[in-house]
Amino acid sequence: MPTVVPLDLDGHCVAACWLAGIPHFALADGVVHRLDNGHKWVEAHDGLLAAAPDADGKRLVTGGEDGKVLDIGADGSIEQVAEIGRKWMTSVATGPRGAVAFSSGKTAWVKLPDGKLKELVHPRSVEGLAFAPKGMRIAVARYNGATLHFPAADGKPTELEWAGAHTGVTFSPDGNFLVTTMQENALHGWKLADGKHMRMAGYPSKVKSLSWSAKGRWLASSGAPAAVVWPFLTKDGPIGKAPVELGTRGDAMVTAVSFHPTDEIVAIGYADGMVLAGRVADQKEVLLRRAGNGAVTSMAWDAEGRRIAFGTETGDCGVIDVAG
């Protein structure tokens, strides 16, 4: 049976992640906690709005209500990436070779690997950011679609249109697809080679959590009483195909999903704090954590795929050791 090491904090957990094998929990009050031979923490922001670990799992980039973007190391060290006046930093993303993107209002900024800061102004507010897996390319989720920029160049951006408010964005691991979360209860996707649309609808509530499988064959999503897992097994992705549903429960919505780092297994967090693991191949499920206090807001596997850090909207955080 899996074992759970609890960490009882106070407040909404924006991000649970691993840095150098140490579990970190970034809370909305601006404090970043870690379990590193005991409970330690650093006061990073006066109000934290967004946080994203880098691909190497060595640092956490955070954006706050204080207009600052910070780089937090596994040892609690803090470096300032940028400060853009008294503006709320509503989203952050980490990219290749140390690149960082962040946004406030209608503007996105990209700090390139050489340290240059590129400003990208949009007609409407920037709601989400994501770097492509290869090359220095960034996607911006906005009203009525997404915009793709090559921030190191001065070329014209690519506009991907679809009516409605797009609130978050992610590239597939192979870079062939772009998927956005929407204000309505749906996802929308584009096949980047030819601009084909992928409308992924039918959710009873908003999708707030997405996670790709290691090889990009599946995309797991929250927003239903099960984890809705879309197939990206062919060149057209989920066009004309039905998703797999894992961990179906009639009494609680899925609020967070996280794919295992190597296997096609999804950790599924619910509105009542329960966590299950579901395997895509045979839909087999294992209970990892019983219901607790508050909806699960963030989860992340460690690099070995043995432990899961989780956080909730009430600060009911901790680490699940899957092997027990």
UniProtKB/TrEMBL annotation:
One Pfam family cited in the UniProt record for this chain: ANAPC4_WD40
InterPro entries per UniProt: Apc4-like_WD40_dom (IPR024977), Quinoprotein_ADH-like_sf (IPR011047), WD40/YVTN_repeat-like_dom_sf (IPR015943), WD40_rpt (IPR001680)
UniProt domain Anaphase-promoting complex subunit 4-like WD40: residue ranges: 258-322
Superkingdom of origin: Bacteria
The protein, known as: WD40 repeat domain-containing protein
